[in-house]
Design a protein that fits this description.
The protein is α/β, with parallel strands linked by helices. The protein has helices at about 10-15, 25-30, 40-45, 55-65, 75-90, 100-120, 125-130, 135-155, 190-215, 220-225, 230-235, 235-245, 255-265, 275-280, 295-310, 325-335; strands spanning about 5-10, 35-40, 70, 165, 190, 290-295, 315-320. α13 (about 255-265) packs antiparallel against α14 (about 275-280) and α13 (about 255-265) packs across α15.
């Protein structure tokens, strides 16, 4: 009987410091401790954002090459898979009779093979592309800052995450969600339901149909369209919203729920520029055993989410952030405390 290797994810704040000569020792450590590193497309994109080309090249090679690496599907693919399965359970008539599996394979080939090959050969083009994404990241952070200000003004306390509810307040000076959620009467609903209903309807029902003309990002549409007849979905907006507000279950959507929960808990502290990337990484934690990071605040966020999460996800391991020590040594020291 064979045992499965322990699956780990290293935060980008660890990968980005492995150019200190630690990569060979990391390989030995993975072998000695029987660890399998899950490498994320989002981590690759953060690494190619590094300005120094020589450092980028070394770290991309360390991230991409090695027998104890497992490349993981992009989080957009995993998010979409959960949405498609929810539709399969509740609205099977919206599914395409013949899925466009060739398109799914094309997208997955790009994210699991082509983008890695491109980064290994010459990361310059990817670096320039990532530089162009800064306004989008800044927009997300600005939105979080605005939400945090609202929470502080209202003295809103984040209680049990599964029990947080939202409703429409006609007397509030905040924008109403009523117009964005067809069929919702404004009565109290679980906050995670309202958030995911709003995000998915906006992406699939509003942006999706116009994105090829406007140039807006249509990532969610790209991943869901091969499986779902979006014409049928868009012709039944009230039913779509009802699916989210009354029929979806956390068990259907652990990655989407975890991403939402981390985003909420992040608002209880000062908003940092790394918040979007942290929430993105969190969505992968249902598929691994340990998550190693040198970010104490991120560990605190994840442990706060764990208190209320109705499912298990990777244990967190806080790694010493002192960069005077080699990164592999810091990782080894942190793992030595794990029983």
């Amino acid at each position: 009987m064979t045992t499965q290797s322990t699956r780990i994810i290293l935060d980008t704040n660890l990968w980005s410091t492995l150019d200190d000569g630690s990569l060979p020792r990391l390989e030995t450590l993975l072998e000695e401790l029987d660890l399998q590193v899950q490498v994320l497309p989002s981590t690759l994109l953060e690494i190619v954002d590094i300005p120094l080309e020589e450092v980028r090249r070394k770290l991309v090679a360390g991230l991409a090459r090695g027998s104890r690496r497992t490349r993981v599907r992009t989080e957009a693919d995993l998010f979409a898979e959960e949405v498609v399965e929810l539709i399969r359970r509740t609205r099977p008539e919206w599914l395409r009779p013949i899925p466009d599996r060739a398109e799914v394979e094309r997208l997955r080939t790009f994210w699991l093979k082509k983008i890695w090959r491109q980064a290994l050969e010459d990361s310059t083009a990817l670096h320039q592309h990532q530089q162009g994404q800064s306004p989008m990241r800044d927009h997300i952070v600005d939105g979080q800052k605005q939400n945090r200000r609202g929470m502080l003004e209202e003295k809103f306390k984040v209680g049990v995450l599964t029990e947080l509810h939202g409703k429409d307040d006609p007397e509030s000076d905040k924008p109403s969600l009523l117009g964005n959620l067809p069929g919702w009467d404004g009565s109290p609903r679980a906050l995670w339901r309202l958030n995911l209903a709003h995000v998915t309807w906006y992406e699939l029902g509003v942006i999706g149909p116009r994105a090829r003309i406007t140039g807006e990002d249509r990532t969610m549409t790209d991943w869901i369209e091969p499986w779902v007849d979006l014409g049928k979905l868009r012709s039944s907006p009230e039913s779509f919203v009802h699916m989210w507000l009354d029929e979806a279950r956390v068990a259907d959507l652990p990655r989407n729920w975890l991403n939402w929960a981390v985003d909420v808990v992040q608002l209880t502290a000062k908003v940092g520029s790394g918040n979007p990337g942290d929430a993105q990484q969190a969505s992968y934690l249902v598929d691994c055993d340990l998550f190693l990071t040198a970010d104490r605040r991120f560990v605190e966020v994840l442990e706060r989410v764990r208190e209320d999460a109705p499912f298990s996800f990777a244990g967190t391991v806080l790694v010493d952030g002192n960069r005077d020590k080699p990164t592999a040594e810091r990782i080894e020291q942190a793992l030595s405390h794990i029983a």
